[in-house]
Amino acid sequence: MTDFQTVRIEMSKLSLDVERHVEGHRYHGPFSSTGTLAGQATLTFPSKVLRAVTAVSSFHYETKDDHHIDKLKLETSASLLRADRGEILVGVEGAFKDSTPDDDFRGKPFVMSATVLCIVERDEQ
After folding, report:
1. Distance between CA atoms of 42 and 115, rounded to whole angstroms?
2. Average pLDDT for residues 94-108, to the nearest whole number?
3. CA dihedral 93, 70, 105, 96 (to 10 degrees)
């Protein structure tokens, strides 16, 4: 049986890398970057999960400063925590780069979240 859930995940800073490697591509400077942002949530389905896939269905970004997004990368993941109990750990990781080198993200307030869709194949029980 196919089933799905969505979850909104708040993302927080993991690092302030100057370059962020995502899916074989590099952001080359000079530029300002958020560094790596990540978040995760646990979803529970009513029966044993056989496999899961994830995708970003939307994202939200806000800052108090003038930032123009030049590049944005978001990656999702799904890990079976307790598959027999229907528990899945859903994660999202990403970074974005400013289109101009004049803005500095270090110490600046900004918020980023993503809504992640998790589609599973599970037992019908």
Report:
1. 13
2. 63
3. 0
Q: Which of 77, 72, 64 lies closest to 104, judged by CA?
A: 64
Number of structural domains, the chain? 1
Residue 11 to residue 77: CA distance in whole angstroms = 14
Cβ neighbors of 30 (< 8 A, separation 6 or more) are: 101
User: What is the residue range of 103's domain?
Assistant: 2-122
Separation between Cα atoms, residue 101 and residue 104, nearest integer Å: 8
What is the Rg, in whole angstroms, of the alpha carbon atoms belonging to the chain? 17
**Strands 37-44 vs 87-98: parallel, antiparallel or unpaired:** antiparallel
Q: Report pLDDT digits (tens) over 32-80.
A: 556 677 899 999 999 999 999 999 999 887 766 656 666 777 889 999 9
Residue whose tokens read 């980023």:
112
